[in-house]
Design a protein that fits this description.
This protein is of the alpha+beta class and 153 residues long. The protein has one domain (33-151): Immunoglobulin-like (Sandwich). Helices cover 18% and strands 41% of the residues. The protein has one helix at 2-28, and strands spanning 33-35, 41-48, 58-59, 61-67, 72-81, 87-92, 107-112, 117-124, 135-140, 145-151. The strands form 2 sheets. Strands 1, 2, 3, 4, 5 and 8 form a 6-stranded mixed β-sheet that branches. The longest helix is centred in the first third of the chain and has 27 residues, at 2-28. The radius of gyration is 19 Å and the shape is elongated.
Amino acid sequence: MKRKILIIVLSVIILAGTGTGLGLYFWLNPLGGTNLNLEPGTVLSEGTFVQIDTSHWGSGPVEIVQLANGSLQLQFNRVEIANGPDLYVYLSNKTSYTGISDNPGGYVDLGQLPFNEGRFWMDIPGSTNLAEVNSVLIWCLQFTVVFTYAILS
């Protein structure tokens, strides 16, 4: 009987410690937000981030925009994206995702997600074939999972 109680107490301590540790990690290490002015241009495609589950979600619009000088930007306009470790932004050829364990498909890596809320942009390489881009994917490189995505139209 004492052994069962000891196991239960240790299990509770371990789970509470893990939960507290993860909570502190995400609370103390948020990407943060910004409210940068987005440069106007021609919207070539757009989509809205979706919620996959309570830990992997996003909301708000994202657009691929061609600026007056011909360069391309991925513009995030008042988005909110779940905080997580090692988040990257991919322009993917996939047209649908089945959950967090889905693969990213063929993609162009735009780099680490600079913020997880607000208005901001990322430059798109000029060599990107936009005809092959069907979605914007927020990918957790550390755990190889989908955090959120937006299907473009």
